[in-house]
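Ticket 4471: requesting a sanity check on a complex prediction with S-adenosyl-L-homocysteine. Repro inputs:
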Amino acid sequence: MTTEETGEAAGLAEARQRLLQQIAQDFAETASWTGRPVPSERTMRALSRVSREAFISERDWVAAYDNRPLSIGYGQTISQPFIVALMTDLLDLEPEHRVLEIGTGCGYQAAVLAELAAAVFSIELVGDLALSAQRRLRHLGYENVRVRQGDGFQGWTEEAPFDAIIVTAAPEELPEELPAQLVTGGRLVIPIGPRGDSQMLWRCVKQTDGTLDMQRKLPVAFVPMLAEKKR
Ligand code: SAH
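Returned structure tokens:
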């Protein structure tokens, strides 16, 4: 490494530590909404292990650890780190769990999930994003993540049921197919609401009778969950 590169790596490591502190502070400040004043140690450890800079283009590295969303092209974004942390925490993942993610994007959230669960299945609507996320995750050594291009509204029936489902784009209503793909007691964390406006983040738990117990968690702003164009 050149001196400049060593300096850059140290700068990023420091920025990452600062970001973790900010995330903890955001948990404290939103606790009256979320009911979670502190993130779990496992959530924080997972976040500290994933290099956010590996998921964005080099010209954005100065902002890699800013607590805000960043553009990843195709009109899409890499989510705000606090929101990634909160949604991850609300899934209550255990090491043996299987998780479905809808909206792979660049694969950052998938990598965080892969640090916590046995297997991650992630669906992305945009073919190019699905392909590059899959390559990136493989290159980073995440062998427990599978990415495929597809329409998240359908879920991933062949791999269901899942212990948890996370949706990282906002539909206007709850996608009908998803609850059936959760185990009893499984968690679905999803933003729901109109486009271009703020949406509500929900944590839903599947009951023994198959219905969902739905709890409001936080107003959020996500890109819309789009329907696949019919050919
Ligand atoms: N999880 C990402 C953030 C993704 S942004 C991260 O870690 O940063 C939301 C993503 O959802 C976009 O990439 C968008 O293309 C995708 N998306 C939108 N509608 C979808 C659908 N119906 N099925 C699957 N993915 C969808």
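Notes from triage: Helices lie at 3-29, 31-34, 41-49, 81-90, 108-114, 127-139. Leaving this open until the requester confirms.
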